[in-house]
Amino acid sequence: MSLPFYIVDVFAEKKYAGNQLAVFLDAENLSSAEMQTIAREINFAESTFVTKLDLENNSAEIKIFTPGQEMKFAGHPLIGTSWVLIHKIYKNIPDNITLQVPIGAIPIHKTDELIWLTAAQPEFWDVFAKEDFLAFSNLQSGDFNDQFPIQEVTTGSAFVMVPLKSAAALENLVLDRDKMNTWLHANCRTSHHGLYFYCLEDSSIKSRLFYIEHNQLLEDAATGSASTCLQASLLKYKAPEIDLINYQGDYMKRPSQIHFKGKLTNDHFDIKIGGKAQFVAKGEWEA
Predict the structure, then answer these.
(1) Which GO terms describe its molecular function (predicted)?
(2) Do 127 and 263 fall into the same domain?
(3) 233 in the same domain as 169
(4) Distance from the CA of 201 to the CA of which of 6, 77, 171, 214 falls in 20 to 30 A?
(5) d(Cα 269, Cα 240) in Å, to the nearest integer?
């Protein structure tokens, strides 16, 4: 079986930045196990598989896989897959499409070079003490920004939001893999979990996402799903309207820009993240 595929860099201002994504088309006859094997082979943070394509209504069903597991929702795969469908597959470069993922339908909108997604309503879970993090990191008690809670938040995928006071603390962050892994399994509610450290600076944010997969401590270059959780947290605890850029990936030499545009009105969260995608390659995959 031969599958057409595209590679794009997502949340990237230029090629070879942002987060890599492989998008596989015509994947309706693949099993989930086969998709997982392909995702492990290509070994990007995530790969997507288009299992149903509706050309008339500009919609598609997709499945998302990391090298280790399937995801119910993930931001950079949705942005990157949307860019491929809008620019390479659908006719007339539509401004609006819909992607169906396990948590439901995700509306996608294009404005100029940016692709935007609208996230599901967030849930705010457990709040944690900063002392927990002193046991598996080089952070000191004074490094945390006490204006915001350390809290697990989900909009379909869950992450622990960890606010820091300074970019220096973020840049110099060191984590103990084994102790961190023990803490994640003891405290997080889902099987896919990560720590999203961030520093708020005026009209922008700097961030880093760490997680453990296949017993390795990994960093992600641009995490759209965690960004929707962070935006939800800022809307709840900082201001009811947000318009700024989240800079991630700088410390791993894959700079990324994730645009935030959100509003909280009468307990309803309107969470939008946007970014650019850069076309890198296309080809045929022999499955």
Answers:
(1) isomerase activity
(2) yes
(3) yes
(4) 77
(5) 9
| 267 and 254 part of one domain | yes
175 dihedral zone (left: phi>0; alpha: psi -120 to 50; beta): beta
- Identify the CATH number of the domain in which residue 261 sits: 3.10.310.10
Q: Which residue range(s) make up the domain with 61? A: 2-119+275-286
pTM of the model: 0.96
- In order along its 287 residues, the chain shows pLDDT tens digits of 899 999 999 999 999 999 999 999 999 999 999 999 999 999 999 999 999 999 999 999 999 999 999 999 999 999 999 999 999 999 889 999 999 999 999 999 999 899 999 999 999 999 999 999 999 999 999 999 999 999 999 999 999 999 999 999 999 999 999 999 999 999 999 888 899 999 998 778 999 999 999 899 999 999 999 999 999 999 999 999 999 999 999 999 999 999 999 999 999 999 999 999 999 999 999 98
Burial of 286 (0-12, 13-18, 19+ CB in 10 A): exposed
**Calculated CA dihedral for residues 129, 250, 244, 108, nearest 10 degrees:** -100
> Is-contact 258 272, C-beta < 8 A?
no
Q: Are residues 66 and 155 in the same domain?
A: no
Catalytic residue annotation: 46
Same domain, 156 and 220: yes
Q: How many domains does the chain have?
A: 2
